[in-house]
Specification:
By secondary structure, the chain is an alpha+beta fold. It contains eight helices and nine strands. 35% of the residues lie in helices and 17% in strands. The chain has a five-stranded antiparallel β-sheet, sandwiched between helices. It has a two-stranded antiparallel ribbon with strand order 1-4. A hairpin with a 2-residue loop joins strand 8 and strand 9 (267-278). The model is unreliable at 1-26, 39-70 and 198-205 (pLDDT under 50).
Length: 302
């Protein structure tokens, strides 16, 4: 499966603004700034969530736009955790503020579903698997709609996230799962719950068991060829990922995100890159891939 095929052409279902200053190496900040300039500068993108244009699968995702807050530049934040190292806190490059998730939330939806099934002492049903697999591998929105309802929408997601160690992720209102807000560091926490060896977040709460983690990993390692872009650009052939993209209806600008595990010289890294304000889908993909490469170069020391 190639690492950088053509990006998908359909906008996804959509999806706030709060954060803290995160650690950033000067070299990577310069690289991220260069990536922003190379990708173009967007204007007047709303910082609060606006509803993106739904695909043919997602009529339930439409709704009135949220209040807009002027913003003048494209933003990008990258977070990296050396999974083979001893650290438990990722290095974050850029401001660790919240972004729309778009379809990276589908990993969180699946993790929530699996955790709820564990609590009930059962495995996923055939119907649940029939939704989960296209939701991750093909980013199927109709499947996500069904599972979002099943997990109890935002309240169900947030209850599971407290157990998975996420602290900065707020579910989208009503049916609008793509308007969930998250940070790069929270996405690393979610990835640790999936790819970590211990299976428990920092707080020691009950989390995903080995069978559940293996299931999510397998799906993320088998995404459709046309969606195998993003953080995979910073690694070799061993990667597992989920991407998300949406175009804001109020500005026409794009949110593009990518999260996953990559392998570099036999070393495993968790990487999350979140961005918004790109003038096109193509620009957003290029921005995310440049940011992922820059962050990995700094984190790996080469």
């Amino acid at each position: 499966m190639p690492n950088q095929p053509r990006p998908p052409q359909h906008p996804e279902s959509p999806a706030g603004h709060r954060g803290r200053r995160a650690f950033a190496g000067a070299g990577v900040l310069l690289a991220l700034s260069t990536a922003l300039l190379a990708g173009g500068t967007a204007h007047a993108a709303p910082a609060a969530a606006a509803v993106g244009r739904p695909s043919a699968q997602t009529g339930a995702e439409t709704g009135p736009p949220a209040a807009a807050e002027p913003r003048n530049t494209t933003r990008v934040t990258a977070a990296v955790l050396d999974l083979d190292g001893t650290g438990r806190v990722p290095t974050v490059y850029g401001d660790d503020v919240t972004y729309d998730t778009a379809s990276i939330i589908k990993v969180d939806i699946l993790a929530t579903l699996l955790l709820q099934a564990q609590d009930a002492g059962r495995r996923l049903t055939a119907q649940e698997r029939a939704h989960a697999e296209p939701m991750i591998r093909h980013s199927d929105n109709a499947a996500a709609n069904a599972l979002w309802r099943e997990i109890g929408r935002a309240p169900g997601l947030e209850a599971a996230n407290r157990r998975l160690g996420l602290t900065e992720t707020k579910g989208g209102s009503g049916t609008r799962w793509g308007l969930t807000r998250t940070t790069a560091s929270d996405q690393i926490r979610l990835l640790r719950a999936v790819f970590g060896t211990g299976g428990k977040p920092d707080g020691g709460a009950t989390a995903l068991n080995q069978e559940s983690r293996t299931y999510v990993r397998t799906l993320m390692a088998g995404v459709a060829t046309e969606q195998a872009w993003g953080v995979s650009a910073a690694g070799g052939s061993g990667w597992a990922l989920k991407n998300g993209w949406l175009q804001r209806s109020t500005s026409g600008l794009w949110d593009v995100n990518s999260v996953g595990r990559i392998v570099v010289d036999g070393h495993h890294y968790l990487v999350a890159v979140l961005s918004d304000g790109s003038p096109s889908m193509k620009d957003g993909v290029a921005l995310v891939e440049r940011a992922a490469r820059a962050a990995l170069t700094s984190a790996s020391g080469h």
